[in-house]
Design a protein that fits this description.
Order of helices and strands: HHHHHHHHHH
Distance between the termini: 87 Å
Strand content: under 5%
Number of domains: 2
Structural class: mainly alpha
Largest sheet: none
Number of strands: 0
Oligomer: single chain
């Protein structure tokens, strides 16, 4: 005889906490794997090794591959997690408004803060994008968004120039404020954050004079 509706409902209710517990454990383990990848990127280990991720996260190797189909998917998810976590740093208050010096200071501060927050994962994304079209598209989308931000922040100065001069100035501004430019100053040349902001601000001031 099939169970009564009341008994079936009681059994289903009893199963819910167990299901919720398994789901919560899965989410915790998945987050631990992603955080382990971010830590490895931060330490300079761009070429992911699944066994290293498992050891760092405390999650079994089998579970790593249960949560992610392959290392490319794992890398994309970790990069997306880190990017989302620090997305507010990319927001510039009062975009395009205020005196030029203030606008320069705001965008320079934003770009240096972004670099320092997501630099390792960004470098990993750049390296892996050569063989990962999805990452390549994500990087290109980010590049376009940041270029639009530059154009909006310095719209008054750009609009005051004729079309050829505007194009040249826009290209120079965009180049100066790329992740790669900030990375050159911070990581390659070893400048501190304050000196990097100063170099960028002085360069922008000269370009926009």
């Amino acid at each position: 005889m099939p169970p009564s509706p009341a008994r079936a409902a009681t059994a289903a209710a009893a199963e819910e906490p167990a299901i919720d517990g398994r789901r919560a454990r899965r989410d915790r383990n998945r987050d631990a794997v992603l955080d382990a990848v971010i830590e490895l990127f931060t330490e300079g280990h761009v070429g992911l090794v699944a066994a290293d991720v498992a050891e760092r996260s405390g999650v079994s190797l089998r579970s790593v591959y249960r949560y992610f189909d392959d290392l490319d998917e794992l890398a994309r998810a970790a990069i997306a997690r880190q990017t989302e976590r620090f997305a507010p740093l990319a927001e510039i208050p009062d975009l395009g408004e205020g005196p030029l010096d203030d606008r320069i200071e705001r965008i320079v501060t934003s770009r240096v803060d972004i670099h320092d927050a997501v630099g390792p994962t960004r470098r990993a994304a750049i390296q892996r994008s050569a063989t990962n079209p999805i990452l390549a598209e994500q990087l290109e989308r980010t590049r376009r968004l940041l270029a639009e931000q530059v154009a909006a922040q310095f719209a008054p100065e750009l609009e005051a120039r004729d079309r050829p001069a505007r194009a040249r100035l826009g290209a120079a501004l965009e180049l100066l404020l790329t992740f790669e430019s900030v990375d050159q100053l911070r990581r390659v040349q070893g400048l501190g954050a304050a000196d990097t902001r100063r170099v960028l601000a002085e360069s922008l001031t000269r370009l926009l004079a």
